[in-house]
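Marked as duplicate of an earlier ticket. Keeping the data here for the record.
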Amino acid sequence: MRQAAVGPRIGRRAEIQRRLVYYFIPILIGLGGLVFSRQFDHPFWRAAILTISVALPLYAVGNLLARYHTGRIERLIMLSGVMLLVLGAVAAVTGITENIAASLLLSPEAGQVSRIIGIGSLFLGLAVVLYSVVRTGEDTEEIAERFRLLAEHITDGFVLSTGDGTICLVNQRFLDMFGVARSEVVGSNARELAERFDMAPVREHLDRRAQGVASEYEMHVRVGDREKVLLFSGVPVFSRQGGHTATIATVRDITEHARLTQRVEQYARELRELVEEQTRKLQASEEQFRNLLLSMNEGFLTVDRENDIRFVNARFAALVGLPEEDLLGRDIFDLVEDASRSRLLNLLARSTTEAERGLRQEIEFLDSDGRAVPAVVASAPLPRREGQAEQGHSLVVTGIAEIRRMQQKLVVRARELERANEELRMHDRAKDSFLSNVSHELRTPLSTIQGYVELFGDGGLGALSEAQQGAVRVMERNVGRLLGLINEMIEYSRMQIRGIQPVYNLFTAQDLAAEAVAAIHPDALEKNLQVRMDLPGEPLHVWADREKMAQVIGILLNNAVKFTGRGGNITVTAEAWHNTGLSITVEDDGIGIAPAYHARVFDRFFQVDSSKARQYEGTGIGLSLAKNMVEAQGGSIHLRSALNEGAVFTVHLPDALFAARRDGGEETRVLEGKTLLVAGEREDFARALAALPGPAAVHWAPGGYQAVRKAAELRPDLLVINESSGDVLGRTTLRLLRQNTEVLALPALVCTMESDVILAEERGHWPHTEFLVKPFHAAELDEAARRLCAGETVEETLRPFEPFPPARNRRYVFVIDTDPGMREWVATALKYRDIGCMCTDAPPSALDMALTVRPDAIFLDGDAPGARVAEVVRAFTEAPQTTGTPVYVMTGLRGPMEKNPAVAGVIRKPFTISELADIIQSA
């Protein structure tokens, strides 16, 4: 609120005295009239004099009350006049004045003069009062006329009131602001209006107008259901004689302005809080950054444009052996060895122009004793303000003295490890050579012995007596046992060297169990054992490595036969496990295994009775081998047994079933209405597809040529090629298929075990062909077949089929080895070296593969039984698709291959993948 004193200040007291005359005159006239009214004898005149004498004082009292908010002296004089009027009235009524006049013995002439003076003062007081009233009204009307036109053209509310607060002029803006009619406002008192709208401060400021005080103030006023913020400005108006005749006030609606001000203030507060918060965070971050620089493991320092040190942490100070305070202000080059100064100068210069590269340089500093301290220095320019020159550089210094000492120790250790590794390689070669010798030197004579024993047993070499036939049976049984032991040892050694790489195929659990039981039938018959199979009537088609699962079941059955007494019982059970898995159980009623040995029976070379006088023979690696084979396929093997209560071995293969119904859900119709032609070495895969609900017909062809001929005859909807070890990726079948114009566009689905890297290479070479990695579910097969038959493969992305594809930037090799585990290991390991690899066990298949992909090198197994290495090498050198391709022989033996000019090199077994990759890169 702002207040200012206005109006005349000079002669204020004289002006008040002049204004008092207007009140004293009617008061004195009233008193005189009351005193001398009894001088008139006529009743009319006496009544008139009494009426005027009473009316004029009453008028004075009314003015006193109406002008209560005038000066204190005026109010005091007016109050005194009223009291004198009361006293005079009492004197007149009681006749005290006549008694006084009589007592003083005044003459009749004095009473006459008194009468004349009273009448004159009566009429004079009446004239003065009427003149005062009329003059005051004229002054107010004059002011109203002056401001009437202006009031209607201003944007603020306008109010004009008289000195006593009576409102005589308002504009329409004021009426709209308060929502009232003009008739309600004009003629009413401003104080009443203030009370109506609960505006107490307005009354206070109106009281100050008579004192010549102008003011400006804000108020919150509720008009109807809205609350407004109004700015009131009021100023008093005085006449020439200095009297307060009127008050001019303006009212401005500043509600929106107030809201905007509040918002701005709120924004300002939030901004201030945000700035304070960010400032605190910045200070905290700066403190953390400083603490980090001071405590970091690397040395850190900053230098200015003159290369003087401005900041250094304790790590750098410890590196050069000087206190931090001694380093501040020193030239950085004073701490650098002479030969390193040019390198540091070059680093600082390049870091300014190549800051984004993160430049580093090896620099040798000098410690306090002048010794060289090697370190790696990374430099970056300090941030600079726009338009300013370079501010300097920050340096991160990493001491490498300890690293160099560790490098020297590592070099020594690496040499020792290389020597030890070479010794291990020699031992591995010796082990591999031993296994090869066992395979060739033991199996060959045993096979010969077994052949002659069979001739003797069949009578091919003449009739035998009863005793001779018994001896032949004993010989045959022991030859079989010896072959089993040799096979177990070779398989276990191969597993230890290369691990187990399962090759998944589809077959039925019933066939697997039947073949395993048939294999141990002679031994069971000899001990009069009853072998029973508990198998479901519906075929259980499963994904597994058939060869390894046959070994597992064979090991369990051989143990059951070995540890079950004569006339005992053995039961083989196969069933679905948890809807999607397979469970195979081998149960016997033999001697059993004590619970104390359950955890150890699967350890290698463990036997419950390991004494030399033990009753049961064996190497102790059978169950360990079985456990590793099952676990390699994601399964598990469990034992439940007690001493003299038999044993139960259970094999679980989770998620192994190949069926249209999974997880107990509804049966899905797979390959609906499709006629399929399945190409593969075994018919198991075709039978599994035929068992699915949906295909119209499923035909089988054992090889690529037969498949192409049948495809031309039957015109199936889809050719399914089941990859086998002798026909990797089915390239022979695919090549023959795509060269036959009758079935050129026949969709082909290749079921393979190859890696994603190899498949990525293959997908671009074969049109109308899709690859599906085994094992897979029936729903996945159906989805791939529908997509392939619908032609959803993008033909534009396929490379054209060429008989001899051009060379690639990526290396690609062929590996020919009869061992599937070896092929899988090489392909998987080379994938991580970004080297493509295609594997097969037959050289003719490799020649077929070369029609699709020209290899950079060919690796041939030289230890395979019956391998004619020289002829195979000559075939590769003469074939147009492999002419000029280097051929390497993989062998664990030393022989004439090293002298064969057609052989590019010999790699000794066992070898590491690094050695193989080095040969491929140099080929």
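See parent ticket for discussion. The first strand starts at residue 2 and ends at 5.
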